[in-house]
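If you are new to this repository, start here. Below is one unmodified record pulled from the training split, so you can see the exact layout before writing a loader.
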Amino acid sequence: MKKKITWTHLIFILGVIGLLIGILDPLEGSVVIAVGSVLIAFAAYFKKDRHYKIFILTSFLIVIGVCFLFYLSSLGGFGSTSKLSWWWGLLILPYPIGWLIAIILLIIRTLKKEVHS
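And here is the target side for that same chain:
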């Protein structure tokens, strides 16, 4: 029996692909990861997924962290020879934290789906 693929399911799959492809280069791929996380949150919200709030939170964290990543990069970075100390790097932390939470949640969802099948 074939399952019909809905537009929300397609957006969710595209978001997961973006979340995974972006890790090939975390700096330049950060935009792909941010778009992927927003697509996942968007699809989860419209599918009435029980984890949609977590996906929205992770997408918010990723977008905030990526914005700070590009902002600090435009200032010349931080640490060693830069005018900004290493502590400015803490502003980027929401990006990897949000990405890690999203990946862990996707893995948990996949494992639970396999157990229930």
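Two things worth knowing about this chain: Helices lie at 7-21, 30-46, 52-74, 94-116. Residues 52-74 form the longest helix (23 residues).
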